[in-house]
Write a structure and sequence with these properties.
This protein is mainly beta and 527 residues long. The protein is built from four helices and 40 strands. The two termini are 72 Å apart.
Length: 527
């Protein structure tokens, strides 16, 4: 059998969820050893009664007494078959004559010996004609046996086989190496490990974290923030494993196998969905869902928004981004926002779907868009789900846009409209200057050093639906967050360790959270 891959992930996986391989080798044991086998022959021990006493009440049989000492390793086990057995000896039963056969009696002796001194943990004992055969449960060369007795008759010890220790293959390791491909298709070594198999020959390896880092070596799939671009993603890779078996003195490679090629995409599912495959998560009735963690989409007229879609099927051509607008007078208008000439298998597309981004605001300016649907189709066949986005047309003086990378590795936005508060935090070091001459009050003696400032904001989301507020958790958990200020997107950190939530009593909810910029201010200029 040598080395095998006995467990592997699905053909397509999320990179941020465990990507677990199981390997198996039959080289753990170099020599399986052998057990100790010995027997006690009771042929000479008929143990018949030597006299009979009769009384009006009963008949008494008098048996010959005998005893022996069985030494296991360095421990002497004293075993007796006599009346009034001393407390330091273990008593085994007499044979009941004439009703009990010798084989039946040996069966009772076997059970007694299994209990004696916990011998049952060391040996299996079977009855073979007039002998008891002992076989050790472990292959342990330290197991030795001897028998001593002062009685005229006693069991006869015969050693059939001495024990030999089990020996393990020296320096056994499984050297596993993960290979992937860069954007140019060049094979790259990502990470390697030397795994020590357990006693059953199994070893496990999860390399999801280094593989996720490799996917991001050319950056994330953040969309072009200041231009409308129907782009394609770059955080998808093929990968395979090379597994080499090493052992011996000196340690040498003894065999190697290569896995099949798998595909992974940056992103992951929560723990309660780890048992769901990527294909089952994304597909519904032969349609592939957009890579978003929430379908409660609500945007404003000027809010940028993006959707991403992953082609898990065959190569596609002439894929249309289909949009259907619903106006406030109940009318509808459908158009194609963009056509991808091709989308290859295992390719991701990044689709701008904000109303301004797709030019929907200017189609019928006298009407108001209240909602719209987005879907992908090719050759008359719908490829994706139909995603509905509601439009908030209210005047929102405190409106604020946020962009974040969701759990599936894609970018989307949301807006807040509640009031905010600003804070400027300062950090500094202080020192005391000692005036060595006459003390001059105007010169002072305490000074500030290394003064830095950081802007912080307390954001209130404004009241939203339960689904919208629940979807905010993906923003809080995101490693990459940006906010839109004065025409620019700025990276931010979440300053809150807990989130406050409010309810208005009419089924709407709001939350407040703190953000801070990712840079410190050491100098200031008005512009």
């Amino acid at each position: 059998m040598a080395i095998q891959i006995t467990r592997q992930p699905e053909n397509i996986t999320w990179s941020r969820n465990p990507i677990l391989f199981e390997f198996s080798t039959d080289q753990v044991v170099q020599d399986s050893g052998r057990p100790l086998i010995f027997s006690l022959d009771f042929t000479a021990l008929e143990n018949e009664y030597v006299d009979v006493l009769h009384s009006p009440e009963a008949t008494y049989y008098i048996y010959a007494d005998w005893e022996f000492s069985l030494s296991i390793k360095e421990s002497a086990l004293y075993i007796s078959c006599e009346y009034g057995t001393p407390v330091d000896k273990y008593k085994i039963p007499h044979r009941i004559r004439p009703a009990e056969t010798k084989t039946e009696w040996l069966s009772r002796v076997r059970l007694a010996l299994l209990e004696a001194y916990n011998l049952g943990s060391l040996f299996n004992i079977v009855v073979n004609n007039q002998t008891l055969v002992f076989t050790s449960k472990n292959n342990d060369s330290s197991l030795t046996v001897s028998l001593a007795s002062d009685a005229e008759v006693h069991p006869i010890l015969s050693i059939t086989q001495t024990a030999v220790d089990i020996s393990f293959t020296p320096n056994l390791k499984l050297f596993v190496e993960l290979f992937s491909f860069d954007l140019e298709g060049n094979e790259k070594s990502v990470v390697s490990a030397a795994l020590a198999p357990d006693l059953s020959g199994k070893a496990f390896w999860d390399f999801s974290k280094p593989l996720s880092s490799f996917l991001l070596q050319n950056g994330t799939d953040r969309p072009l923030l200041y231009d409308v671009a129907f782009a394609k993603g770059k955080v998808i890779r093929s990968y395979f494993l090379q597994v080499t078996e090493l052992y011996g003195e000196p340690q040498l490679a003894r065999g190697s196998i290569r896995s099949q090629t798998f595909v992974t995409i940056y992103g992951g599912l929560p723990k309660n969905l780890l048992g769901t495959s990527l294909l089952n998560f994304l597909t519904i009735e032969n349609r592939v869902n957009f890579l978003t963690t929430s379908r409660a989409k609500k945007i404003t007229l000027d809010q940028p928004q993006w959707l991403s879609w992953f082609n898990i099927g065959d190569n596609l051509s002439d894929v249309n981004v289909c949009v259907e607008l619903k106006y406030n007078d109940g009318s509808y208008y459908s158009f194609i926002a963009h056509t991808y000439e091709s989308i290859e298998k295992f390719e991701k597309v990044i689709i701008p779907v904000g109303l301004r981004q797709i030019g929907a605001n200017s189609l019928y300016p006298e009407l108001t868009v209240v909602s719209y649907e987005v879907k992908l189709s090719a050759n008359g066949v719908q490829l994706s789900e139909t995603l509905t986005l509601s439009v908030d047309n209210r005047y929102l003086p405190y409106k604020r846009f946020f962009l974040f990378q969701n759990s599936l590795g894609c970018y989307e936005t949301f807006y807040t409209y509640g009031k905010k508060t600003n804070t400027l935090d300062f950090d500094k070091d202080s020192a005391r200057v000692i005036q060595v001459r006459d003390f001059v009050l105007e010169n002072g003696e305490n000074i500030d050093l290394d003064i830095t400032g950081q802007e912080k904001e307390k954001i209130n989301t404004g009241y939203k639906s339960r689904a919208e507020i629940k979807a905010m958790r993906d923003f809080y958990l995101s490693k990459e967050k940006l906010t839109y200020v004065d025409g620019l997107w700025w990276p931010i950190n979440l300053g809150s360790s807990s989130i406050d939530e409010f309810q208005d009593g009419n089924g709407l909810f709001a939350q407040s959270f703190e953000i801070s910029g990712q840079h410190l201010q050491e100098m200031f200029f008005e512009n």
